[in-house]
Amino acid sequence: MSEERGHARPAEEAPEPLAEADVEEQFAEMEVDAPRVGIVMGSKSDMPAMDAAGQELEQRGIGHEVRVMSAHRDPDVVADYAKNARLRGLRVIIAGAGLSAALPGVVAAHSDLPVIGVPLTSAKSVAGGLDALLSIAQMPPGVPVACVGVDAARNAAVLAARILEA
Ligand code: RP5
């Protein structure tokens, strides 16, 4: 029982000091639960095409999270997400976008994690998604983005799984 300065506290209320091993154990548990793959996309309209990535990771038992953020409409959100990704436990980022698909490249500019871009097609696309394909694949030297086929979100998830297992 603690009776400092006349304030009695019942023994059951006194917090047990955590041993160093306990802290490490708790930290390890947090890391196990943290998603390892981040799936991001430029618009809610990309969700139907990007669903396949989440489904593939789900089937493989790989923890992931899904976020909608546009490189052009929410540039600060994208930068913050990419900058904090590694610290949050993410190891691969899958980024899907259509039209002038800057999202994968911008994520790669702010993070050293491997980024897999998924070029998406839509009614406004040029040549069935060639615009997005070139935007994602034609990165400048030093800032690589892996690029799967147009609308090939499932392949992006398979590649992410292989990167995690490499
Ligand atoms: C891109 O523009 C998105 O990734 C999406 O594929 C495309 C159209 O977006 P919405 O106008 O449907 O929001 O940034």
Overview of the molecule:
The protein is α/β, with parallel strands linked by helices and 166 residues long. The protein has helices at residues 20-33, 47-59, 75-85, 103-110, 130-137, 153-165, and strands at 37-41, 64-68, 92-98, 115-120, 146-147. The chain has a five-stranded parallel sheet with strand order 2-1-3-4-5, with helices on both faces. Strand 3, helix 4 and strand 4 (115-120) form a beta-alpha-beta unit. The N and C termini lie far apart (54 Å). It binds 5-O-phosphono-beta-D-ribofuranose. Residues 41-43, 45-46, 70, 97-99, 120, 122 line the site of 5-O-phosphono-beta-D-ribofuranose.
Q: Helicity range of the residues?
A: 40-55%
Largest sheet: 5 strands, parallel
Taken from the alpha-carbon principal axes, the silhouette is elongated
What's the SSE pattern? HEHEHEHEHEH
Strand order of the largest sheet: 2-1-3-4-5
Which molecules other than protein and nucleic acid are bound?
Answer: 5-O-phosphono-beta-D-ribofuranose
Number of helices: 6
Structural class by secondary-structure content? alpha/beta
Average pLDDT over all residues: 90
How big a fraction of the residues is strand? 15-25%
Which consecutive residue ranges, at least 5 long each, have pLDDT under 50? 1-8
Report the span from N to C terminus: 54 Å
Question: What Rg, in angstroms, do the CA atoms define?
Answer: 21 Å
- The total count of strands amounts to 5
